[in-house]
Amino acid sequence: MRFLLDEDVNPAVSKAGQGRGLNIVSVHEIDRRGFGDREQLEFAASQDRILVTRNRDDFIRLTVSTYQAGEKHPGVVIIPYSLPNKEPGRIARALRKFEEQHGQTETEYGIFFLQS
Questions:
Q1: What domains sit in the chain, N to C, each tagged with a CATH number?
Q2: pTM score, two decimals?
Q3: Average pLDDT over residues 81-100
Q4: Backbone φ and ψ of 24, nearest 5°
Q5: 87 CA to centre of own chain
């Protein structure tokens, strides 16, 4: 699995995740801050990356609209507020667990809620 962290996710999650063997990058690291949600999702899809965000409502709507338009994307993982941004290691561990549980699962158009 490959992950792209949205702008609203602490970029330190990327380093913590890489240290746990994840293929993960933050939009902060690749100079993609300030792009709209649709543009971030399209970029994630072009890179075959699952978008990781805290922005639940907008990305649920975008997933529905991209599905209806036949525009593919590899899925969205939503980080709940029970996993605070100030704890990047905890979020990275949860993403690692997600990868272990869903690594062989088809995630296209999927909306997943990260568990701690």
A1: 2-113 (3.40.50)
A2: 0.94
A3: 96
A4: -140, 140
A5: 16
